[in-house]
Structures are given as structure tokens and as C-alpha cells.
Amino acid sequence: MDRDQLTEHLKFAAELGVAGVSRDPAWRTRQGDALVVSRAQDERTAGSSPAHAPAPSPLDSARGPEALEGSKGEPVTFAANAAEALAAVRADIGDCTRCKLHGQGRRQIVFGVGNPDADLMFVGEAPGADEDIQGIPFVGRAGQLLTKIIEAIDLKREDVYIANVIKCRPPGNRNPEPDEVETCEPFLFQQIDIIKPKVIVALGKFGAQTLLRTLDPISRLRGRVYNFRGAKLVPTFHPAYVLRNPSSKRDVWEDMKLVRTLLSEK
Ligand code: URA
Predict the structure, then answer these.
(1) Alpha-carbon gap, residue 260 to 207, rounded angstroms
(2) Cα 131 to ligand 1 centre (Å)
(3) Of ligand 1's atoms, which has the minimum distance to the CA of residue 125?
(4) What residues have CB less than 8 Å from 265, skipping those under 6 apart?
(5) pLDDT value for 11
(6) Which of 76, 193, 248, 258 is the Cys-Cys partner for 68 at CB 3.0 to 4.6 Å?
(7) Rounded to the nearest 5°, which phi and psi values hold at 144?
(8) Burial of 189 by CB count in 10 Å (0-12 exposed, 13-18 middle, 19+ buried)?
(9) How many Å apart are CA 204 and CA 98, to the nearest integer?
(10) Of residues 150, 141, 186, 145, the one with CA closest to residue 165
(11) For a substitution probing ligand 1, which of 106, 131, 136, 162 has the most ligand atoms within 8 Å of its CB?
(12) CA 231 to ligand 1 centroid distance, Å
């Protein structure tokens, strides 16, 4: 990190509510936050309901050669590794017409981006206008803030994997509808099952409520850890919400410290 990057990093950390920088080695090993640990211990479980049964095409292990199944359970191909397995899922989606969004002005499918072997995965709601143009999740203003949030815990965008519940832009950025979620979320579940992240950050009310099958407000869901498809799921505010409500940065920072602690656990 050069001097300018360091200045930028510290400025953003300060904006996120970080009071100072610690030389305590416990910080480096990411064990050092009593509040975070106690929150992590206050773990509720989610994801054990039938609604969270594996999607039709989970992969038991995406780290070795294996047969893949498509969204209807049909064999697709063999994958030597997670990158290939993800490519096979992307190929299975094709130029999708499974739900009505394909006829409502979306330009392209926004599948996901990042490290296929990531320990940390971010899940948003659905692509917006910028993402629809570029075909990459979180590249607009909210995406730029997400990149800073990732860097605030000393990771790079390339280290993590970023995807959305819905792969196509809903018209006018409306909320995805239940039939669209039902059709599309099996592909997200496949991505999760291939990547096998240690930690998933659900960004915003929609992503968190959808994955956890709850109508609890994000303000109640955040700050806690949930079991989800073999990962620890941490809900936090959506970066677009943070842009509109800068005071929420402090809570996001708390959530990211929790994420950092979870990533450091064996
Ligand atoms: N908001 C999301 O939820 N996802 C994106 O990819 C961009 C903005």
C-alpha cells in the first residue's frame, strides 16, 4: 500500500467510525474485539428450515473433479475446480428466459465476480443500471462504497466473491418479485455451494430477508451471525442505504469487524 492509498484507507476507516489504529498483535490476528466475539457467540441459527434445503443442483465438493447438475438436476459437465464449476453454472443460465425479467428491459445477466475460492462472499439484491450495462455486480456508486468497505478489512475486491440474489436488473430498480426470486435463487445457492465461503455478508434488507426467510427489519438482523449453507452469514446495511444514511457507516464497520473475526476463526 503506498502513502496515498494508506491515507485514503485511514480516512475511510475514520468515516466508518474507527477511532484509531492499534499496534496490538491481537488486532493483527483478528481476535481482539470482545464486543465482536460476544456477538459471534450470540449466534442464532437460520437456514435449517425446509426452505433452506439444498437447491436442486448443489455440489458436494467443488474442489475436485465432479459431475455438475443443472438447475433442473440434469447433468451439465465435469468441473476440475471451483472456477470451472462456476463457469458451468453460468453456461447453464445461458441467456436466461426462465422469468419475466428477460422481457422487461434487462441487457444482460449479471452472474457474479471475484475469487472462486473466496473465504468471503457478498450477496446483494439485484443488478442496477450500471451493473446491467457492465455485466458486473456492484460497479456503480454503491459498488464503489462496497469496494472501500472490503478494503477497510484489508482485503481487495479480487479476494472476495460478489453476487446478487437476482441476476437480472428489475425495471426501474423495483424490488425483485417472489416468482423472480424463486426462479433465480437456486443459481445463487449453486454459487455458494461451489465457492464454500466461510462468511457471507448479506447486503441490505432484501438480500438478508430473502436468504434468512424472515421479514425482520435489517436493523434487527444485522450485528448477528446466522448459519447458512455451511457458512456464517452476517447481514449488514446495503451500501446504497449507507450512501443515503451516512450515520449507518458505524454499524457497517461493527459488522465488518465481526466478519473479520469470523474469517480468522478455524
Ligand atoms: N445493488 C445490488 O444489490 N447489487 C448490485 O449489483 C448493485 C447494486
Answers:
(1) 20
(2) 7
(3) 3
(4) 198
(5) 64
(6) 76
(7) -65, -35
(8) buried
(9) 25
(10) 186
(11) 131
(12) 21
Which pLDDT belongs to residue 77?
57
43, 226 contact by CB (below 8 A): yes
Q: How far is the CA of 122 from the centre of ligand 1 (A)?
A: 10
SS3 readout for 42-96: CCECCCCCHHHCCCCCCCCCCCCCEEEECCCCCEEEEECCHHHHHHHHHHHHCCC
pLDDT digits (tens, 9 = 90+) for 178-191: 999 999 999 999 99
Query: What residue ranges line ligand 1, CB within 6 angstroms?
Result: 124-128, 131, 137-138, 142-143, 164, 240
Question: Contacts for 245-252 with beta carbons within 8 Å, 24 or more apart?
Answer: 246/15, 249/15, 249/16, 249/17, 250/16, 250/17, 251/222, 251/223, 252/16, 252/149
Distance from the alpha carbon of residue 45 to the mean position of ligand 1, in angstroms: 26
Q: Round to whole Å and give the CA distance between 31 and 35.
A: 11
pLDDT the model gives residue 96: 98
Residue nearest to atom 7 of ligand 1 (CA): 138
Kindly give the residue spans of alpha helices, DSSP state H, lying in the chain: 3-15, 25-28, 34-41, 82-93, 129-134, 141-152, 178-195, 204-212, 218-221, 239-244, 249-264
Record the cell numbers describing residue 7, joined without a space. 491515507
CA distance 131 to 260: 27
**Kind and range of the H or E run holding 231:** strand 231-236
- Domains defined along the chain, listed by start: 3-264 (3.40.470.10)
